[in-house]
Amino acid sequence: MDLFANLALGLSTAVSPGNLLYCLIGVFLGTAIGVLPGLGPTATIAMLLPLTFALPPISALIMLAGIYYGSQYGGSTTSILVNLPGEAASVVTTLDGYQMAKQGRAGPALTASAVGSFFAGTVATFLLALFAPPLAEAALKFGPADYFSLMVLGLVASVVLAQGSLLHAIGMVVLGLLFGLIGSDVTSGVQRYTFGIPEMADGIGFVTVAMGMFGLSEIVRNLENETERSVVIAKITSLMPTKDEWKRIIAPILRGTIIGSAVGILPGSGSILGSFAAYSIEKKISKNRAQFGKGAIEGVAAPESANNAGAQTSFIPMLTLGIPSNPVMALMVGAMIIQGIQPGPSVIREQPALFWGIIVSMWIGNLFLLILNLPLIGMWVKMITIPYQLLYPAILVFCGIGVFSLNNSTFDIYLMGLFGVLGYIFSKLGCEPAPMLLAFILGPLMEENLRRAMLISRGDPMVFVRRPISATLLVLAVLAMCTVLIPAFSKTREEAFKE
Amino acid sequence: MIQSTKDFWSGLIYIFFGLSAIVIAREYGMGTALKMGAAYFPTLLGGLLILIGAISVIRGFVIRGAPVGAFAFKGLLMVVGATLLFGLIVRGVGLAIALPVSVILSAAASSRFGWKPTMLIAAGLTLFCVLVFVKGLGIPLPVIGPWFGR
């Protein structure tokens, strides 16, 4: 079968000594930084992106992917041990994970999370290998109008899944699209919104915006409530769950994997929704539902599996359609473009070694996580106790040097500062930066496809509803929007994010 | 009166960006729906943003919402200030000076700032960054800058 030939090709790419090493470094660095307080996956990847510029494309992407799931895993560790979710997706893990830790069962909670993540990662990798090729095949038939509608659907979904007010999510998306248009217009060559600044002729860098909006503004936000931080780390006695606990986590891991894989493909903050949905389903159907919130191991296994499955399947739209489904994937798109690869359906055909190498390396990375992290737990615990006031100056200078290295220009450092301020103001006003970042990278793509579609249809906007693919996507977008506007669902959405 | 300051102010920000987008785009040439000029899409987005902003402002008058929390002006000023200063002087004075300066300046924003640990971190980071970024990755930043006559 083709699948196995492809996986074999991927395996031969991924296990070359260099790539294995970069995968290991990525997973290790990702976990280390994910464990550190106050740095989510987006900021972590943005910060470490410049380190990969010198690598060949395949190694760079393997390392970045490793950083991504490493940092997610690191976030789970801190959720369980110190009740501090490193990122939004592991918020639900704190509910039962930390309770277990308080009862002296931190070890089994960590193991449940690691084993669940590994299983979910394995399944999701196979799903990726199975569904990516046909999807990419189908995507080759997409015309400009279909692409435009696909991006509309993606942005609508990111709005629907965003936390907080719907109106502000839409506002941030439109603002992001506008910021994305800064720079030379591809068609006419006109310099747009550059204010005559030569450094802005090529547009503003995505990494610069991400580091400002996520890195810098997060630091300022964390400085607001410094006094609230007090880290009491639960002792880890034994890592091994009991026989009974092993039995109890099998079904939750399976369910979590399925839910997480399905939700991960959706645009927006896929892994957050996945881990939340997995947790609330377990809470409803588990035999031990009374124990939830008081340290149920099911409440750790299910969301952690979902979280990791979602992280993996969120690569599907990025690798096959070239359309990122969350800010992390947007950074991956940015990394591919920097490496000279135009993400999209043709990648799989033109660069099969790269495509399958990344997929297989994901599985290897998950394996590394499983073997590495449990024995290294003592080291991670030490890293958690690094006080934040010593940490953030380091984050700041890494961001500064990293942003500089993008174009060897100090202008990008100023721009990062500006977006730091903007990001902080928006967070104060309750406007989420994630949809904006997604829109930022889609802005120029959307305009280009809109132009082409209109040119082909001779200025007839009906082309978007006349083409079946485009029409279907737009109907889906409208339906997604309706689910939020219908009161019953929007209520559950609010409740979902409240917990 | 304003019921929700968050909605009100974010609405004004949207309107500001939307209006600026449209006004600036007037120089770029609209074109037609068939052959869109450089101004077409941004003007469309700008209009949409103004509409969203207007709804948000109106909502700010109608729907009661949580007030905007206090701004951490000191933190914002020192963290962003340290970033900008780093950009401003790094080429002139070199990494060995600019880096510790911005580490100390930004660290001072914390209420738990202490000279001794900060100096240690600054020294360690400087050494690390010079070795990894300048010597290792070859990022073109001077260690000691030309402002010191080198």
Short description:
The complex is a heterodimer of chains A (499) and B (150). Chain A is mainly alpha-helical and 499 residues long. Chain A is 74% helix and 1% strand.
Features:
heterodimer, A: 499 residues, mainly alpha, two-stranded antiparallel sheet, 1% strand, B: 150 residues, flat
Strand residue content of chain B: under 5%
Strand order of the largest sheet of chain A: 1-2
Helix content of chain A: over 70%
Q: Which two chains share the most extensive interface?
A: A-B, 67 and 73 residues
Calculate Rg of chain B over CA atoms: 24 Å
Number of domains of chain B: 2
Rounded mean pLDDT of chain A is 84
Average pLDDT of chain B works out at: 88
Write structural notes for this entry.
The complex is a heterodimer of chains A (499) and B (150). Chain A is mostly helical and 499 residues long. Chain A has a domain at 2-140 and 235-408. In chain A, 74% of the residues lie in helices and 1% in strands. Chain A is built from 23 helices and two strands. In chain A, strands 1-2 form a two-stranded antiparallel ribbon. In chain A, strand 1 (183-184) and strand 2 (191-192) form a beta hairpin. The longest helix of chain A has 34 residues, at 106-139. Chain A is globular, with a radius of gyration of 22 Å. Chain A starts with a helix and ends with a helix. Chain B has helices at 5-25, 40-62, 73-93, 95-107, 115-136. Chain B has two domains: 5-62; 73-148, no CATH class. In chain B, helix 1 runs antiparallel to helix 2 (40-62). With 150 residues, chain B is mainly alpha-helical. At the A-B interface, helix 8, helix 9, helix 18, helix 19 and helix 20 of A face helix 1, helix 2, helix 3, helix 4 and helix 5 of B.
